[in-house]
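Appendix B, record 7
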Amino acid sequence: MTKELLTDEQIAAMTPGERKVLMERLARPLDQILPSAGFVEWVRRIRLGLMIGGSILLTPWVVFLAVTLPNSYEARNWSLTWVGFDLLLVLLMVTTAILGWKRRQLLILTGFATGVLLVCDAWFDVMTSAPDDIWVSIATAVFAELPLAAILIGGTLRLIRVVAMRNWLLDPGTPLWQLRLPNLAAPRNWGTGAAGNLDLR
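Structure tokens (predicted):
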């Protein structure tokens, strides 16, 4: 058994492509953690359809709102709306802090969501503020909300990049948007060809 194990020196001598193949072969088989490939592809198509359909339907709706909405409107539940929004923001901040302290990967989700909510907070603060409050809202957005949002969103994207490079899924210098999702609906076996024939002995 021990004769078939790779030594540290053999692993260090591997090319990035060989390391990637080795990690893929050592990973837990998808059959053990996912439903059938057909079901995964069906769910994927539904989700893509919802996003594409929603985008198509929302486009004329946005145009309609731009033409018909009044510049001012008396909103109900104004205080409850903002208190609820800020409570959600505080909850996400606390959750992000706890996950960061415990070094949990869910930090990526909560940190990104918190950053997006801070951008929304800045936008609605500035857009809905009274003339007497506009400069306070702008200052809060420029010096607090937007910088913190940039730190959170940028930090989570860097974490994704580090994890991807660590797992040989992304080469240094390659833009993060080129990182591909695994094909969960593909036939679930090892690759073929020279890269797939890595000799582990």
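Remarks on this record: The first helix runs from residue 8 to 12. The mean pLDDT is 88.
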